[in-house]
Amino acid sequence: MKITYFLTTADNAAGTERAIITQANSMAADGHDVGILSVYRDTGSTFFELDPRVEVQYLIDRNKWIYLANNNGVESNPNEQPLLSQVPSRFIPDKWDNQLNALTDIAINRALVQLQCDILVTSTPALTALAVQQAPPKVIVVEEEHRSTGTRGVTAEPILLFGPRADCIVSLTDESSDWLADALQAAAPNLVTIPNAIPDVFRPETSGRLPLIVAAGRFVPGKRFDHLIRAFAHAAPEHPDWRLRLYGSGPQEDAYRRMARRLGVESRLELIPPVTDMLSEWSKASIAALSSRSEGLPLVALEAIAAGVPVVSYDCPTGPSEIIDDGVNGRLIPTGDVQILAQALEELMGDSAKRIRMGTAAKASAARFSPDQIQKKWIELFTALLEEASDGSTRDERSLRRTKKATQLLNSQLAETAQESDEIGQYLEGSSELVLELSELAGHEVTQRNGELVRQLLDDADIRYVLLKGYDMNRSSMAVSVRDKERLLESLIGPQYSGLRVEALAGSRKLTPGYWEPAKSPQIPPVFETATTLRLFREYVDPEAIVRRGDGFACDVELWNVVEEEPGLLAPPRHNRVLDRLPESLFHTGTSSSTAQIHLPSISNGQDLPLWSEVNFPIDAVYTWVDDTDPQWRNARGRYLPENDRLHAEAASTARFTNRNELKYSLRSLRMFAPWIRKVYIVTAGQTPAWFAQADERVEFVSHDSLFPQAGVLPTFNSHAIETVLHRIDGLAEHFLYFNDDTILTRPQRPENYFAANGLSRFFTSPVKINYLGENAPPHLSAAANNRELIRQEFGFEISQSLLHTPYPHKRSVLDEMEAKYQVDFDRTRMARFRSSGDISLLSSLAQYYSYATGRAIPGTVDYSFVGLAREGTEAMMARILRGRRPDVLTLGEPNHGDPDPEFTAFITDQFLKELVPIPTDYERENE
């Protein structure tokens, strides 16, 4: 068969190019006619070694911006071509791919319409969009998706729009394939999962004894090497011989050097340009590290395990968990948690035996990605696609045929569902525990239900177990002896645990996509023979099927196995936060207790005490809120506006007071994702939302007049002024989070995201700079500049960055101290009825930097999104957040310059929030 691979540039040294060239070499070695079509020529030769039988056709010399008329590099009509390179592409907007332009439009079109091959394999969504529109109609188009599709954001739009016109989309992981199936529905092309192969070349193996951590990749924000540098700096003092080596290049290089200098590890950080022989570099490493925000199936991790190097990686979507069995061949760390990343690095840095043991397992696990196995999958796919096209049909005809078939299947399934509705209703009635009210489906509550179920079945079977603390915030974990595995599986069979589902895992990796229902199928599936972890759960749904809770809230039962070199001890199949060895004798049955749980008095008093790294103090939440529709409030604001005719437009703007019932949804997000909040205080001008119903004392409304020491400054319409009195709330905890009502959590949070266990608060810096803009600056920027001046005068250093609009962690005692020290600044801000140039912004910036300067706050990290309303792309951004991986927190931003369609903005915002946080709190009136 004749195959053409379509790349933006074949000369690049990145993972996509490495994967494509590895595949092209394998196909050529199998005797196929293989070529590469490269939009750009950068160096004139591929960075990775290319089989001489594979011909590369370059279209444009990017150094001169010249279109190459043929593969010999002949330049064609060069005079106007550099100018065309400055003109935007007519077909591909910059938001999809900013490397394409009017010159590439011409060059790509000419190449594609003349293309002669059986199969065209594209490597980016933008190139797929061009291929399905311009390649000859009978050519088979296959997109290789090298990133995590669900986290692509706007660059996934070409897949959603043009993917159905391709013959196949190949993802690196099942998670990405599932995302595409859900997004494209009946319009989906063939969806297949094929991982990258590890190149079949000689590779030296590591000894695991050189004190070196290695990471590789582009020096760009998405790789988050700044997290890795901070984690290394935390671990470095206890391990003075260790170094961190980063291979790569990019715009963040200087920032990494500055960070290392500031953290005191400059002499131990090595930044090395990309190398052609990365394989030999892995042999020098004892630990590989991956700190990305998202990955497809990272080749750097595959190469590392092939060299016998254990990988410590963020468990980001979607690839690392496909490669790493936590605690077996590496470590999977909650994404973005620098503290746990540092602990994992330090753990392996200090334990050579564990490093070498994990390295051996890493080498063995690489066999799953051998070129022979992966090549076989590609040949099978290409053969099937050629068979599908053997009738001479065009791509569009094949697409229509697939869509019709999928639609017919869907209609058939709907008909079957309608016929069986009575049976389904009877089943749900007979298994009423599977149907819960929507208010009962908060994730932590479902996790607790599944945990109690598993404890009960272990007690019933008299199987001894230990409760564990894992890294997954949504799942609970328990340890049992592997000797009880068969007895445990057999005990599940029968009607007594109706609705129970069980999944087989090796460590943390699922062995098959499906699950086993013991109540329906008494035969234990063969896959459980190799399982080292059992994931048990019931799936719960509300009566209207708005929320469904499945294996994401399960209880994992780890099967602890005998350690051959340590007789009498059991070891876990993956890493946890508490233990890595237990005496086998603990799991012997015969206890007379009513429970089979094993208590360990010498460890955390039966595990009731927190770990040293866990927050164990109360944390409150404080909101400020206003009802802009309240006639009394509007009249008061109108009375005082004439006195302030020199107000900046921002201070007089009504946008900041717009009420979209965000408070209701923000409170929902607390219940769903931060159930550890002790009490919520809502500070208002004596107002209460119409939808609010007082259910208990955990939510309390506090009026401005109970907080401001000078009554004459009220009413106030200045959020800066209100910030200066929130620490005066009676009964407020020492540690609290300050929320604006437009700030909403979107996934489970730990208290440690906001406070260290020793009480230090965290703050989250923004790339936005604090500038001195003079008297005409907007008041929020003037306040930031005033903060900057106070810090400079007090502590002798400059602050340059604003903070992200997230929940702001604070300590009440620090604010008391600041009020006494800066009484003049507090009073001046409180006296400004509207925002003014003399304000300080206490809770959204000043207190954080003051706390940092006095040793009571530390920088933190948070995954944050800002959703600007009434802007181009707002609706698409909302859809991406709902469909893809959600951030920790998002903020809704009101339009600053008017809204051309306020009714539409209100509608899509309301629908977005209802879907984002659908579970109501007890504080909502019915039908509100």
Describe, in plain words, how this protein is organized in 3D.
With 928 residues, this protein is of the alpha/beta class. It folds into 5 domains: 2-193, Rossmann fold (3-Layer(aba) Sandwich), CATH 3.40.50; 212-365, Glycogen Phosphorylase B (Rossmann fold); 395-432; 438-607, no CATH class; 619-916, Alpha-Beta Complex (Spore Coat Polysaccharide Biosynthesis Protein SpsA, Chain A). The strands form 8 sheets. The chain has an 8-stranded mixed β-sheet, with helices on both faces. A hairpin with a 7-residue loop joins strand 15 (466-468) and strand 16. Helix 7 packs parallel to helix 8, helix 7 crosses helix 12 and helix 28 packs parallel to helix 29 (902-916). The longest helix has 25 residues, at 395-419. It starts with a strand and ends in a 12-residue tail after the last helix.
What class would the helix/strand composition place it in?
alpha/beta
The portion of residues assigned to helices is 25-40%
Cα radius of gyration in angstroms? 30 Å
CATH class of the largest domain: Alpha Beta
- Lateral arrangement of strands in the main beta sheet: 4-3-2-1-5-6-7-8
Largest sheet: 8 strands, mixed
Number of strands: 36
Range of strand content: 15-25%
| Overall residue-averaged pLDDT value | 88
Low-confidence residue ranges: 71-75, 417-432
CATH architecture of the largest domain: Alpha-Beta Complex
CA-CA gap between termini: 63 Å
Count of individual helical segments: 29
Q: What is the molecular shape?
A: globular
State the CATH superfamily name of the largest domain: Spore Coat Polysaccharide Biosynthesis Protein SpsA, Chain A
CATH-assigned fold name of the largest domain: Spore Coat Polysaccharide Biosynthesis Protein SpsA, Chain A
* Structural domain tally: 5
